[in-house]
Request: fold
Amino acid sequence: MKILVACEYSGIVRDAFTAKGHDAWSCDILPTESKGNHIQDDILKHLDRDWDLMIAHPPCTHLSVSGARWFSEGRKPLYLRTNALNFVKKLMNAPINKIAIENPVSVISSHIRKSDQTIQPYQFGHPHMKTTCLWLKNLPKLKPTKIVDVEYVTTKSGRKWSKWFYETSLIPLQERGKIRSKFFKGIAKAMAAQWS
Reply:
């Protein structure tokens, strides 16, 4: 299969499909962090190249529900969210037979359509919680591959946090988004095994 992994610079999903023998390409405006087929460019210029499958990770900065208050409080201009939603619509409407759009809980569900599935890293071998939504076109829902217990941390105040979320919250803000946006290898392997 010829596979496009949109908005990915890590190479994690691309490499999972490549390991299964597919012609997989990542595409992002950033250079790839790992060697492999990568297009460093605007993804919208590369949607019409006879791809069999696209897995897209549109940036969640202006889409996530956790950041929605910045718009309602007037701290961010609304056009940023509108532009992000229009970008998602272009990805969803790409001339590709099979499409998966991945994002955390976001305004995509309330402004475009509800997600087809929500998954957690702990269903795929990672002891973390991070609700991940999937919008699917001509693809089955992912089946969990290895359910593990979530690791938690209890703070001095007695609040219980997912260890991964707590530890990443200690990373400086300018680096935090990049770390939290990295896709989990267990989910990528499940995609490669179940969608190819």
Observations:
- The helical segments are 12-19, 69-72, 78-92, 108-111, 163-169, 173-181, 185-194.
- The longest strand covers residues 98-104.
- The chain has seven helices and nine strands.
- The mean pLDDT is 91.
